[in-house]
Design brief:
single chain
Length: 205
């Protein structure tokens, strides 16, 4: 890689990092090329030449968020046996991540869902796509647990995904808004209680 290419890639990485921080602080909809230029010390035209447009920047931010989420939450869970152990690993890692009040662990999708719940447009569609992709992944793991006899055959995967999601949204609310340091423990207990109601009798034996 030549020096010019390496410098260009490093500049783009710095822009993307700053944009991720801005999105976590202010919301994905509040991203601004002008403000990003101020924070990075790069001219607005320099920022524009690398990201193309505000819409392209928002897309890149969400893509990078997805990549990091996958690396921290999804990929490590694949080391666990299929089914319930993998689902539990995913939910525990997800919960631990969002319960950390650090800026980098802010959930862009949860914040974006409230920011764009009554709006239409490509950004809302992209946010919804990301949420549905993660829900589909959870549903697939639940189906595996049912096939393995770990969860009752009458389990409604969509209902269980909804209940898990509701626990995590509650966790985000109480952690970040109420600053309750007991929230993660409470959420983990609630998840254990929830799963116990779905476990098959064979798996409980």
């Amino acid at each position: 890689m030549d020096t010019l290419t390496a410098k260009s890639e490093a500049t783009y990485a710095a822009i993307l990092e700053a944009a991720l921080d801005m999105a976590a602080t202010d919301g994905i909809g509040k991203l601004s090329l002008g403000e990003l230029a101020k924070r990075t010390g790069i001219s607005k035209s320099g920022v524009f030449s690398r990201v193309g447009s505000l819409e392209a920047l928002q897309e890149a931010v969400l893509d990078e968020y997805d990549r990091r989420f996958g690396a921290e939450i999804f990929l490590p869970s694949l080391q666990q046996p299929r089914g319930l152990p993998r689902l539990t690993a995913q939910v525990n890692a997800w919960a631990s991540r969002v319960a950390d009040e650090g800026l980098r662990n802010s959930c862009l999708y949860s914040a974006g869902a409230f920011e764009f719940d009554d709006q239409q447009g490509p950004l809302r569609d992209r946010l919804q796509q990301g949420v549905m992709a993660w829900r589909a992944s959870l549903r697939k793991t639940i189906l595996q647990a049912m096939e393995l006899g770990q969860l009752r055959p009458d389990t409604d995967p969509g209902q269980l995904v909804y209940e898990i999601y509701s626990l995590v949204v509650g966790l985000i609310h109480d952690t970040r808004f109420l600053h309750d340091d007991q929230t993660l423990r409470r959420m983990q207990r609630a998840f254990s209680r929830l799963i116990s109601t779905y476990k098959s009798f064979n798996d409980m034996a």
